[in-house]
Amino acid sequence: MRDYLATLPAGDAGTVLTGRTPADVPDAGPVLCSCFSVGVNTILTAIETQGLATVEAVGTALQAGTNCGSCRPEIAALLARVQHREAAE
Ligand code: FES
User: Fold this and answer.
1) Ligand 1 lined by 55 (C-beta under 6 Å)
2) What mean pLDDT do residues 2-14 have?
3) Mean of the per-residue pLDDT values for the chain?
């Protein structure tokens, strides 16, 4: 492990050791779509900033849900949560 850490560029070893996202990189959140490594936060941000309203639109924007499809129900649940929250505002 020490040998591996020594091969990393300066500053990267700390990031590896803490297991946290660097401050200058957006936190993607827990992986929701494992086929394309797309996180919950990435999907929520895309829904809110791009006005995505369907699972298909999320797939077009991020590829999430476009391979095996097992994450599609979770993407639909995120869409419903955002739409429910917006309707309550
Ligand atoms: S887990 Fe998202 S398409 Fe397979």
Assistant:
1) no
2) 78
3) 90
